[in-house]
Write a structure and sequence with these properties.
By secondary structure, the protein is of the alpha/beta class. The protein has one domain: Maf protein (Alpha-Beta Complex). The chain is 31% helix and 25% strand. The chain has five helices and seven strands, in the order βαβαββαβββαα. Strands 1, 2, 3, 4, 5, 6 and 7 form a seven-stranded mixed β-sheet that branches. β5 and β6 (125-137) form a beta hairpin.
């Protein structure tokens, strides 16, 4: 089965493809989708739906799209739906982490969680899957793997950041991994 994962991010594609070994996973680049798909919703669910709908309507492929946010308790859920653009529109991970660490200075509550919503358009139906990973924001970067906020996020019950974990280990416990697992279970029933 060929399904488009609505992303240009090779790191996300690699991470998800490792979890979907029996699916021929295509990226936006693979189908020739070069336009920017605007993420204009104020919820993760809304942004995932916008992206999946764009691909299905314009390119005719079954598609799933995700949107992920990092929600920090002491910052009233920031950066949330704006996680990728927290420090500005360029989406620079280093600047995003710097701003988050600056905004958390002097705060004792460093609890946070990642939330991923996957929207699947398949056979003229839409399905949503959610994954959540609780943890905390570290005071400094740890590790070189992963992407985004991985170097400063330590999942609950672990001594290392996401950036210190292998792709396989992260995939078993991460927000995206949990949402993808729900997607896999759904696809296996079809």
């Amino acid at each position: 089965m060929k399904i488009v994962f609505a992303t240009h991010n090779p790191n996300k594609l690699k991470e998800v493809a490792a979890l979907l070994p029996n699916i021929d996973l295509l990226s936006l680049t693979d189908i020739g989708c070069t336009e920017e798909i605007p993420e204009t919703a104020d919820t993760l669910e809304g942004n995932a739906q916008i992206k999946a709908n764009h691909v299905t309507e314009k390119y005719g492929y079954p598609c799933f799209a995700d949107d992920t946010g990092l929600l920090v308790t002491a910052l009233n859920g920031e950066p949330g739906v704006y996680s990728a653009r927290y420090a500005g529109e360029d989406g620079n991970a280093e600047k995003n982490m710097d701003l988050l660490l600056t905004n958390l200075k002097g705060k004792s509550d460093r609890s946070a969680y990642f939330k991923t919503i996957i929207c699947l358009n398949l056979n003229n139906q839409q399905h949503l899957f959610e994954g959540v990973c609780d943890g905390e924001i570290l005071k400094e970067r740890q590790g070189l793997e992963g992407f985004g906020y991985d170097p400063i996020f330590k999942p609950k019950g672990f001594d290392s950041s996401f950036a210190e974990m292998s792709l396989a280990a992260k995939g078993k416990i991460s927000h995206r991994g949990l949402a993808v697992q729900k997607l896999i279970e759904f696809l296996q029933k079809i």
